[in-house]
Amino acid sequence: MPAFPLKDKVAPIVWRGDRLRVLDQRLLPRRVSYIDCRTAQDVARATAEMALRGAPLIGCAAAYGMALAARRGRRELPEAAAALKAARPTAVNLAHAVDHMLAAARQADGSLARELERQARDYYQADLRANQTMARLGAALLRKKTRVITYCNAGALATSGLGTSLGVIRYAHHLGKVEHVYACETRPYLQGSRLTLWELMNGGVPCTLITDNMAAHMMKLGGIGAIFVGADRIAANADVCNKIGTYGLAILAKYHRIPFYVVAPTSTIDPATPVGDAIPIEERSAAEIVRIQGREIAPKGAAARHFAFDVTPRSLVTAIVTERGIIRPAGARALRRVLS
Amino acid sequence: MPAFPLKDKVAPIVWRGDRLRVLDQRLLPRRVSYIDCRTAQDVARATAEMALRGAPLIGCAAAYGMALAARRGRRELPEAAAALKAARPTAVNLAHAVDHMLAAARQADGSLARELERQARDYYQADLRANQTMARLGAALLRKKTRVITYCNAGALATSGLGTSLGVIRYAHHLGKVEHVYACETRPYLQGSRLTLWELMNGGVPCTLITDNMAAHMMKLGGIGAIFVGADRIAANADVCNKIGTYGLAILAKYHRIPFYVVAPTSTIDPATPVGDAIPIEERSAAEIVRIQGREIAPKGAAARHFAFDVTPRSLVTAIVTERGIIRPAGARALRRVLS
After folding, report:
1. Between chains, do B305 and A214 touch, taking CB under 8 Å as contact?
2. Does the pLDDT value for residue A7 go beyond 80?
3. What's the sign of the alpha-carbon dihedral A126, A128, A134, A136?
4. B290/A214 touch (CB, cutoff 8 Å), yes or no
5. Residues of A in contact with B185 (CB under 8 A)
6. Do the Cβ atoms of A193 and B290 come within 8 Å?
7. Nearest-5° angle of CA A252, CA A254, CA A256?
8. Is A81 in a helix, a strand, or coil?
């Protein structure tokens, strides 16, 4: 990989030995502010309240959360594990990281605290390496000067650094393969307008914000060569669970015959979930729909639904890019091959 | 039609003889406040700045705008007509109303001011009657207890009263045919959350707000029996131009095999525009995308596109409900039959 900024200046989490500093992404792009998490419960709370988000990142943070629990003794681990796993139900990386740390704890014979700190660092570094590999593999899917659409934020802010789908896009831009990025704002949390635009502008990638409901019109206008999204959980049959709106975007891509790529590390794959519709879809508070950044946008007493994720059937996915190779077409057998 | 509230308590425009009072819909649902328009130019400005919106309503307001110009003399009419027509480019009702008033002015032999006032009232009353007829025809499309999705606001606030697609929904609810309405918030102007929810809640219709990007997931969950939208212009071949996001919603409906109905008066049909892609799509300021109700949601200097409308090809439209009958399947010949 040529010289390329692999980590952004503003890191979403910073390990300080006795605490995990978590960038409060709810305040971006207006303010860069960190929350000090000194316990696993602090990490779980920051995760549940969405100070940090992004499936790979909440996995990395959970690993550090377990390291923080280990500093207080082995007896802390079960409760810490339960709190972290319960923080958000959909992203499987959370359970993946916690289970990995529990297994490491069982095998630790020296200092438990030191061992779990080392394991958390390794988990974080492995995610970073996975992102680099996915960026390389994903960029190979594109020809010159492609205009792409991306959704939500699957960038450096959603991972240990670089990002999944946004890592592919940024690296492909570095190679001259991406000319322009259209970022969907991604209601209700506006990860697209607040975070993805911020990352792309900081990284010098030409980008334009659109509302989610403009994606179909942009595709119709022509010139969109690919769509890249991340994933929160991939079922054993290769159905993809990701941010609410991804499923609709995939249907639009199919209608316009535009390739629809999912970029996610293998830690996102959940062999225990047979099909996408078995994935628990988190429903969050209606208050997050009827208000935008504190401003009421609906009549008092309005009812709202707030599904945080949806499931895209594998039939709508052109390929899944993982750090262990590209799964194309997306299917159960190819998925097993990558995992084995 | 059984006893049914045909006009809401809060009227979007009120004629006062020497001025048109225009409800400032940008402030809803927080505040009910009217703007006094004493000239056609005032009406044009209120239209361009979206104090009022909705294709049939801006047609009615433009008719009154011409009546205001006539009070100042016949020489005022050409300039007034130009200002009103230029206020917004996409909705054909604007040109339809202004041309209708110019024709009336040419034939007026008594008091021009009195004649154009009468014509404007008639235009308004004709729209109200059209809405009542469409409500009756459209409701006949539904069986019992249907759950529907609607988009943007095509209600009493978008017309002379009752509404087009929302008129159908409200009347069908009155008949027990609509059980629940899911209203898409409709970024960037949030007509769905601010206006449609307000009308439905005031009218006692069970309703739930969703973000635009949740529509596909709602359709997948099952139980959605129909989708109803309005229109800003219908081309001669029956392609439908409507609020940005309508096209994507129609694709999602097709994928899920859910009927997609357009409700619009014949004043929305433009025989002079052969196909949908010939309709001028208004692009508005990027500032309306990067801010929500005055709050910045994107990094400073972020680029954004703001298409206000899109075009849904007739192939995605199950039927068009007009006051002169239902066009099904949507096509050029059936459209001509309704117009003749």
Report:
1. yes
2. no
3. negative
4. no
5. 187, 289, 297-298
6. yes
7. 70
8. helix
Question: Is A277 labeled as catalytic in the residue annotation?
Answer: no
In the chain, the amino acid numbered A187 is R
Which of the residues of B are catalytic?
Answer: 232
Closest residue to A293, CB basis, from B186, B244, B297: B297
Question: How many Cβ atoms from other residues are within 10 Å of residue A179's Cβ?
Answer: 16
The answer to whether the beta carbons of residues A220 and A253 sit under 8 Å apart is: no
Task: Give the distance from residue A54's alpha carbon to the nearest chain B alpha carbon, in angstroms.
Answer: 18
Nearest to A211 among B208, B218, B289 (CB): B289
Cross-chain CB nearest to A209 (options B207, B252, B303): B303
The model scores a pTM over 0.90:
yes
Task: Name chain B contacts of A32, Cβ cutoff 8 Å.
Answer: none
The whole-angstrom distance between residue B105's C-alpha and the CA centroid of its chain comes to 26
Residue A231, both tokens:
């994933």
Partner-chain contact A292 B292, CB within 8 Å: yes
Cβ-Cβ contacts under 8 Å for A124 (sequence gap 6 or more): A15, A60, A63, A64, A160
Contact assignment for B297 to A193 by CB distance below 8 Å: yes
Q: Exposure of A140 by Cβ count < 10 A (0-12 exposed, 13-18 middle, 19+ buried)?
A: middle
- Give the Cα separation of B208 and B193 in Å (integer): 9
The residue written with tokens 């209601």 in the block is A187
A211 vs B contacts (CB less than 8 Å): 187-188, 212, 244-245, 289
Local mean pLDDT, 10-residue blocks, chain B (340 residues): 64 97 96 97 97 97 98 97 96 95 94 97 97 97 96 97 97 97 97 97 97 98 97 97 98 98 97 96 95 91 98 98 96 92
Q: B295-296 and B291-292: which strand pairing?
A: antiparallel
Interface A-B, measured as beta-carbon pairs within 8 A, has a size of 180
Three-class secondary structure of residue A320 per DSSP: strand
Which tokens go with B265?
A: 């008066």
**Is-contact A167 A158, C-beta < 8 A?**
no
Q: Going from the N-terminus, what domains does chain A have, and what CATH number goes with each?
A: 13-131 (1.20.120.420), 134-339 (3.40.50.10470)
Q: Tell me the C-alpha distance between B141 and B155, whole Å.
A: 18
Residue in A259, A264, A235, A229 with CA at minimum distance from that of residue A247: A229
Report the alpha-carbon angle B32-B35-B38, nearest 5: 155
